[in-house]
Amino acid sequence: MSGGLSEETLDLILYGAPHSEHTSPVANENGRRESAKKHVTVNGCSKPYIAPSHEKHQNFAPELDDDEEEGALTDSRSDERDEYGESSRSTSSSPQSEQRTVMIRGLPDKVTHRDIVDAVKGGAILHIYLWNRDHTASISFVEEAAAQDFLDHSRAYGLHVAEKRVEVLWNDRQFYLPPFVRSKIGNGASRNLVIYNANPNITEGLIRQDMEHIHNLIVISVKFKNGNAYISTNSVHNALFARSCMMSRLTYKGMKIAFYPDECAEPLSRIPTGPKKVAAPKKSTPLPNRFHLLSMDGSEDEETEEHGALGTNLNGAVCWADNSVSA
Question: Where is the composition biased (Acidic residues) (predicted)?
Answer without folding.
Answer: 63-72
